[in-house]
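Customer escalation, tier 2.

The customer says the design service returned an amino acid string that "doesn't look like it belongs to this structure." They asked us to rerun it and document both sides in this ticket. The original structure tokens are below, unchanged.
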């Protein structure tokens, strides 16, 4: 699953924003703890002037993602 470009946000004043979100699992799949990079179920990708700012954007977006369990 990837968000369409129009669903992505950017802060024009600060020059940072969300570039992409991807979740590579099917509906109903079990997501287990990632022990290595290949185990990841998805990613959040952001851009900013510094690595720290981009990480902050990713953390903020990650806190807004909701994965429901049965």
């Amino acid at each position: 699953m990837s968000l369409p470009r129009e669903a992505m946000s950017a802060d024009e004043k600060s020059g940072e924003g969300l570039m992409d979100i991807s979740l590579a699992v099917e509906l109903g799949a079990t997501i287990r703890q990632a022990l290595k990079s290949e185990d990841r179920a998805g990613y959040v990708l952001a851009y900013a002037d510094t690595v720290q700012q981009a990480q902050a954007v990713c953390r903020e977006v990650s806190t807004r993602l909701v994965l429901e369990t049965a």
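Tier 2 assessment: The sequence is consistent with the input. The chain has one domain: 5-64. The chain has a mean pLDDT of 77. Sent an explanation to the customer and offered a walkthrough call.
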